[in-house]
Structures are given as structure tokens and as C-alpha cells.
Recover the amino acids of this structure.
């Protein structure tokens, strides 16, 4: 024999999910004999019917356009931030490059462009690419 | 929407096609509006959260594998963001004077109709109970779909629904 609370749980389960045959039989019997349970059943049905959305909802006709506008604005802002970051440090970066060129010029034994850029080597005879690969694979 | 068409729209959106992304938004905004507004009411925050749902979706597009349906993914984001907003509201209401949107049963002489009283009673539920009621009973998803959308077991959905409905019936007993 089930308690009134168990019958109420069974009633709710019948409205929300599925009952097996034994549960369905127990509920049908309880609804026939228990007036309070029958009243609760009516109340729950009214509650659920009132909760149900009467019509589809929408954020309005131009919602998609607003979303795309927000995304485009965000992307433009990110681009601007990246640009500003590099702009802020461009003078420092240029200064470092010039300083490195000056140091290379002072330390280089010759004044060729390659030596100034630090690409050449210090040997008397310039080493060609074939020599470098030859040494490497020897 | 056909799954293959949806995948094509996602791919086009990844490649920077705004028209394709707009079509995706148009296809899903109704469901998201329903969920968010049922949870938060027709407020400016509801639309902000609606926008945020699609912004997050757009940002996630490069990693979106398509295992879950787009609608499932969007509704999960919508419920999570709305629940966070409800918790914020609750904290604000605890800090400041309550706006009086709870405990409608304490004002039996009011001429509010059942719909309004029910909405007020619904607002008094904790977010995790309210989200289950909204998805299952307001939006009309079945119990298994609700469990999938919330990523919880069916048993959890049933127990939360059962407790929420008992609480709502208890509050509105005189009106039903």
C-alpha cells in the first residue's frame, strides 16, 4: 500500500515521463478512490497548462544584424589593439635595430654591407655557400 | 534545419562569411529568446545574454566539432549564462530590498491573474529548478531532451521537476 506522498510522486511521474503497467494501475486505482489526489491532479494539470508557452518568442527582426555588428566591432577593436601595441613600441624596436647595426660596424674588420649586417665572417677569404655545405657534410 | 546545411553554414561562417553566420543566428534565435526570456523575463539583460550566446558560439566555431547539435550547444550556453545572471540578481536582492517578486501566496487579495502569480512563484525557484521547469514545461522539450540539454541524468530532471511543481502548487494552492 502506497502513502499519499508516493501516490503524488506517481502522479507527477505520469505527467512528466512514463509509468510501467503496475505503476499505471496503482495510480488509476488511487485516483478513483482518493479525492485529494484527484484534486491535486487537476491542480497540476492547470499549472502545467498555464506554464506552457502560448506562442514562439523572438528577440525582434534585426537581432541577427545586431549580433553580427557586435562581432564586427569586437574584431575591429582587436585589430586596433594589435596595431596600437606595435605602434607603441615601434620607436624602441627601430632604436634597437640601429644600435645593433652600429655595434656590428664598430666590431667588423671590414666595412662591407654583409659585415655591417653581421652576415659575413671574419676570415680573410669570404666563405661561399658551397664551402659551408662541403664542411658540414665532410 | 537540415544537419548537412547547418554544417555547410558553420564551415562558411568559419571562413568569414557573415551572411552564413547571420542565417545560423536567424534559425536559432527564437529558441534562445524563449529560454532566456522565460528564465530572466523580458528585460534588457535577456537580450544582452541572447547576444552573448551567439558571440560565444562564433568564437567557438573554429573548435566546434558538430558532435552536439547547434541548438543543444546554444541552449546550454543560454541556460548557463541565464543561471549566472539569476544568481547575481539573487545576491543583489539579498543585499538590497527585495523587489517583491517572490512569495506571491502572501498577498491573497491581489488581483494578479494566475499567469502573473505563477510567473512570480517561478521567479522564487532556485536557478537549477527554474531551468528544468522552463525547458520541460514552458519550452516543451521532453524529459530526455531536457536531461541532454542540461547535461544531467533523467532522474535528476524528474526529481527537480517534482520538487519544483510541488513548491509551485503549494504557493498557488488557493488560485488553482
Amino acid at each position: 500500500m502506497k502513502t499519499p506522498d508516493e501516490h503524488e510522486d506517481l502522479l507527477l511521474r505520469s505527467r512528466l515521463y512514463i509509468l510501467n503497467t503496475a505503476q499505471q494501475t496503482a495510480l488509476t486505482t488511487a485516483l478513483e478512490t482518493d479525492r485529494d489526489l484527484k484534486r491535486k491532479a487537476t491542480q497540476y494539470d492547470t499549472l502545467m497548462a498555464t506554464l506552457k508557452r502560448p506562442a514562439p518568442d523572438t528577440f525582434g527582426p534585426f537581432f541577427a544584424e545586431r549580433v553580427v555588428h557586435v562581432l564586427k566591432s569586437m574584431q575591429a577593436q582587436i585589430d586596433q589593439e594589435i596595431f596600437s601595441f606595435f605602434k607603441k613600441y615601434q620607436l624602441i624596436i627601430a632604436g634597437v635595430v640601429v644600435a645593433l647595426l652600429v655595434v656590428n660596424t664598430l666590431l667588423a674588420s671590414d666595412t662591407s654591407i654583409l659585415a655591417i649586417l653581421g652576415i659575413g665572417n671574419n676570415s680573410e677569404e669570404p666563405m661561399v655557400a658551397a664551402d659551408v655545405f662541403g664542411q658540414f657534410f665532410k | 534545419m537540415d544537419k548537412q546545411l547547418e554544417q555547410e553554414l558553420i564551415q562558411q561562417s568559419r571562413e568569414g562569411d557573415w551572411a552564413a553566420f547571420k542565417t545560423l543566428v536567424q534559425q536559432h534565435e527564437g529558441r534562445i529568446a524563449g529560454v532566456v526570456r522565460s528564465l530572466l523575463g523580458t528585460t534588457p539583460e535577456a537580450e544582452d545574454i541572447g547576444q552573448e550566446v551567439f558571440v560565444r558560439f562564433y568564437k567557438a566555431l573554429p573548435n566546434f566539432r558538430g558532435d552536439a547539435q547547434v541548438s543543444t550547444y546554444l541552449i546550454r550556453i543560454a541556460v548557463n549564462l541565464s543561471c549566472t545572471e539569476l544568481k547575481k540578481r539573487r545576491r543583489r536582492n539579498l543585499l538590497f530590498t527585495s523587489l517583491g517578486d517572490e512569495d506571491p501566496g502572501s498577498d491573497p487579495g491581489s488581483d494578479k491573474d494566475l499567469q502573473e502569480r505563477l510567473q512570480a512563484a517561478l521567479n522564487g525557484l532556485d536557478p537549477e529548478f527554474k531551468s528544468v521547469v522552463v525547458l520541460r514545461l514552458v519550452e516543451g522539450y521532453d524529459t530526455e531532451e531536457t536531461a541532454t540539454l542540461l547535461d544531467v541524468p533523467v532522474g535528476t530532471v524528474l526529481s527537480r521537476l517534482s520538487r519544483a511543481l510541488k513548491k509551485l502548487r503549494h504557493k498557488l494552492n488557493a488560485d488553482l
